[in-house]
Amino acid sequence: MTLDSMGLTIKTVAERTGISVHTLRAWERRYGVPSPNRGADNRYRLYDDADIADVLFLKQQVESGVAPAQASLILRQRQEQSARAVMVASAQPIESVRAALLESFARSDETAARQILDEAFALYSPEQVALQIIEPTMRMIGDKWLRNEMTVWQEHLASNVVQQKLFSVLQSQPEVSAVSPHLVAACAPSEEHQLGLVIFALLARRQGWRVSYLGQGTPLADISHLSRQVKPNAIVISVTTVVGLTGLIPWLDAVNRPATALVFGGRMLNLLPTLRAHLPGDYLGDNTLTAVRNLGTIKMRAECWSPSKRVLNVVDLLQTQRLGIAGKVVAEFIATSPKVHRTWDTAHVNYATLFLLDSLACALAFDVPDLMDLQHEWLKEAMPPRLVMPQLIGKHLQIFADVLYKTFTKEQIRLFAPLIERMKNHTYNP
Length: 430
Fold this sequence. Notes:
By secondary structure, the protein is α/β, with parallel strands linked by helices.
């Protein structure tokens, strides 16, 4: 049996972390990091993946200017918190806490929900509460809304209660050193969903990052201005909806991007793997924990993908004329469907049209035709529970296409016509 099959040698740890053997031995002697086990013959120090994670944490902190002694103290505090969480985990299974929280929101019992969250944070670590209780519960609430089993106001109530608690926990975290790595966390322009970003900010803070939290719908110009003022190590942008993704289109032009490492995460990127290569920065990962761990590897991307000038021209026209196009679609749809008001009134049709325009602009700008399939599937699942029949959706899509074909030139139409066809389905024919 080889040493590597029983554990990792210090040489292997050095190779994987980029820290010299001499420094590793010095850290082990002075700070107890890493903390190897002895082999069966007591001749060799043997390390594991946890030791590598600890060394990488120290490396990240030291490279950001934190003294090794202070970095090791932060690491020990994290380890002690995790150990306490394991000790109390048997007191109440996480599954039961999650079920109770979901039930309280289904009953719209705000008092009970707040009490459950308070108790959860008293029993478990913030990481456990955020990732194993809050995130799954909010996904289930979203699914219930999709099936028309919960209302919009119930979903909003749940989001507000959860976010208020998370902000409270975030603000209660110990101050980090002024020389710790610094990140700016913001939602994309017009992006209102910030729950995932709040959880990310909390976990990053607990990993030793200074976090400037900007929150919902932050204009790109403001993000760039802040970047010039405070010069953070990274700017993290959350993209949950197609509306938020649309707001990032200006950053496809390098002239508009801030001179700071840009990193992105969120639902849209998780659902569209092809989108990740066309972002104006790096992709953090498909879950919050992975995203936080990947922060230490962030570097400024030397070159980002950019669409052609022809495509950018059409995208610009779609965005600058979106309100006029939406108005024409709504007017024609309502005029030819006088009884539609029972399920789709003017406001609904206008929202759906703007949704399609944003989807089309993003599919073109980021070269992700799969986005149209994604939106098509969402419509098929979300609309029927709200009594919006496929035929009605099909009629709207056809009118939407007709208006665009009358607005744009033949050459421009050739760019987006295939995308519109991807949105159609034989069951949508009016």
